[in-house]
Design goal:
S16 Ribosomal Protein, Chain: A, 5-stranded mixed sheet, 40% strand, alpha+beta
């Protein structure tokens, strides 16, 4: 199963995340199938590749709870259901 989840990177206490499509059995920081965006919780900065995210969701990828809330804030999930 393909998951859309966060991949951690950055220095200690200065963490940032990449939003990636990855096999659910792969480790957290393993090689992703595709990078779909960026999330920085310290500044609340978010950059999303919306067409790629919509394509992955239509193919059946399941977002994690955290990624789902990020996508809801950006109103991406509304575009998938429409």
């Amino acid at each position: 199963m393909i998951k859309i989840r966060l991949k951690r990177y950055g220095k200690k206490r200065e963490v940032s995340y990449r939003i990636v499509a990855i096999n659910s059995r792969s480790r957290r920081d393993g090689r992703p199938l595709e990078e779909l965006g960026f999330y920085n919780p310290r500044t609340d900065e978010t950059r999303l590749n919306v067409p790629a995210i919509i394509k992955r969701l239509q193919q059946g990828a399941q977002p994690t709870d955290t990624v789902r809330s990020i996508l809801e804030k950006a109103r991406v999930l509304e575009q998938v259901n429409a």
